Amino acid sequence: MKGPDELMVQSKIADTYNAETRLRIELSLQQQGVVILSPMDIFDSINLIKALGIMPKATILDPWYNKGYGGVKYNYREEVIAILNICASISDHIFLWGFPEIVAYFVDKLPEPLSLVAWLTWYYKNNPSVIRGWRSSQNACLHLARPGARLYPEHFLNEAQKAKQAQGKLRYMPGPTSVIEAPLLVGFVGRKEQTGHPAQKPISVFEPLILMATEEGDLVFDPMSGSGTTGEAARKHGRFAIICDILEEYTQIAEKRLNVERISI
Ligand SMILES: C[S@@+](CC[C@H](N)C(=O)[O-])C[C@H]1O[C@@H](n2cnc3c(N)ncnc32)[C@H](O)[C@@H]1O
């Protein structure tokens, strides 16, 4: 067993490492807007962010969906709940993606102090018909938040509404719809945006999440970032982003897409 002196030395080393790593991340964020961490498992990246004392305003969780591509994991539900638990200690807003029948399970099992803000739907009509049966045309996203987390529906006002608001004549704040319509990036659709990642989401699907949950200059975190859509959507709207994926192949795709080199941890 380690004595108190040895433990003290270890915690000083950890403190120095944390301070140095946080500084590197902050500098890169200032310079590039997006930080790509070297590939690691989601539990490692979330715990790292937490240990460094970084508090992203919003965290986007877009895992494999426990059916189809990515396969089925026997402990998927337990893992997602454990992930939500840690995220709840660092982020005001959490967005959990999945097929409706997969995320429905979590609605009444949310860890404290999270609650459901909205059930969002991404609706797409252009999924190629490859199975015998219902052809999937939607993904769900649970918008979860801690008590007091601020929403920003004003970010969706058009110019006419902004003018009315400035004159004090906007009678109510119209929110965006909870159904996001955008075609799947498949075949010729969204060719310029496509990166080769097998489950890449369109930027236009992540933009409303970021706009509703953050202001310019806020930080967004995505620990299962795939091709880096979160990084691109955040940067487009003047937010900062830290992203990470477990696979080297997808980390390289994100580096190329965002023109940012990873930070080695
Ligand atoms: C649905 S995709 C995300 C797609 C991404 N939103 C995009 O638009 O490109 C899920 C990603 O989670 C990553 N992933 C799976 N298991 C992971 C884990 N344990 N830790 C971190 N990332 C993981 C996969 O490599 C994959 O890129």
Quick recap:
The protein has 265 residues and is of the alpha/beta class. It contains 8 helices and 8 strands. α3 links the parallel β2 and β3.
Structural summary, described in words:
Helix 6 (203-213) packs across helix 7. The chain has helices at residues 4-32, 42-51, 76-88, 100-103, 159-166, 203-213, 229-236, 248-258, and strands at 34-36, 58-61, 93-98, 115-123, 138-145, 179-181, 219-222, 240-243. It has a single domain (31-258), classed as Vaccinia Virus protein VP39 (Rossmann fold). Strand 2, helix 3 and strand 3 form a beta-alpha-beta unit. The mean pLDDT is 94. With 265 residues, it is an alpha/beta fold. Helix content is 35%, strand content 15%. It has an 8-stranded mixed sheet, with helices on both faces. The chain binds S-adenosylmethionine. Residues 41-42, 62-64, 197, 199-201, 223-227, 229, 245-247, 250 line the site of S-adenosylmethionine. S-adenosylmethionine (SAM) is lined by residues 41-42, 62-64, 197, 199-201, 223-227, 229, 245-247, 250.
Largest sheet: 8 strands, mixed
- Shape descriptor reads globular
Give me the strand/helix succession.
HEHEHEHEEHEHEHEH
Radius of gyration: 20 Å
Unreliable sequence segments: none
The pLDDT mean sits at: 94
What's the CATH architecture? 3-Layer(aba) Sandwich
Bound small-molecule species: S-adenosylmethionine
Overall SS class: alpha/beta
CATH topology call: Rossmann fold
